[in-house]
Specification:
With 185 residues, this protein is α/β, with parallel strands linked by helices. The chain has 3 helices and 10 strands. The strands form 2 sheets. Strands 3-2-1-10-5-6-7-9 form an 8-stranded mixed β-sheet, with helices on one face. A hairpin with a 4-residue loop joins strand 1 and strand 2 (65-70). The radius of gyration is 22 Å and the shape is globular.
């Protein structure tokens, strides 16, 4: 009986030790996931707008999520996003989608050029920071767009825009007509 107990004790000790060795790796993985994942906060369109209009978007920069409602309220979707890297670059308030473009080109703004003189015009393509689709907002130089750099989603990584995975912006692009009301909070 004492031999059986010692084998069990050794097995349990070994598992405990192996588990403790794995904890740092697991903790690191969890920290990485937390930094790159959205913790969505539920939104209700009624808290932001009187009606749904042709469609409605609420982009929550704190939880890094974009909420979409169709004009009749039958379709509600939530997308993980990238958000502006700083408060100074974050615009909040009400606007709307005024223009949409598949395969957008990109010209850095004057303030971007001050901070990053190496930036230059980029035609549509795999290196373009706007990804495959862009929806231009009523505020100059603010967009909801895709990104080829998937590491940016779930992070503070933009110069003011709201970014989505390319496949998600393509989906949202189809759902949102020009005139979709938008609120950034």
């Amino acid at each position: 009986m004492s031999t059986l107990m010692s084998r069990r004790g050794a097995l349990i000790s070994g598992l405990a030790m192996a588990g403790s060795l794995a904890v740092p790796a697991i903790a690191r993985a969890n920290d990485d996931a937390r930094r790159n994942a959205s913790s969505f906060t539920t939104q209700r369109w009624q808290d932001h707008f009187d009606t749904l209009g042709v469609a409605t978007i609420v982009s929550d920069t704190a939880s890094r999520a974009l909420h979409f409602w169709s004009g009749d309220g039958s379709d509600y979707r939530v997308y993980p996003t990238s958000v502006p890297v700083s408060e100074e670059l974050t615009k909040r308030g009400y606007t709307e989608i005024i223009r949409k473009k598949v395969g957008p080109d990109w010209t850095p703004t004057a303030s971007m050029m001050e901070r990053f003189p190496e930036y230059h015009y980029m035609p549509p393509g795999p290196d373009n920071p706007l990804g495959t689709h862009a929806m231009y907002l009523g505020w100059p130089a603010y967009l909801i767009h895709g990104t080829h750099d998937t590491r940016k989603i779930g992070r503070q990584s933009s110069d003011g825009c709201i970014g989505l995975y390319n496949e998600k912006i393509a989906e949202l692009f189809q759902l949102c007509p020009v005139g979709t009301q938008v609120r950034l909070i």
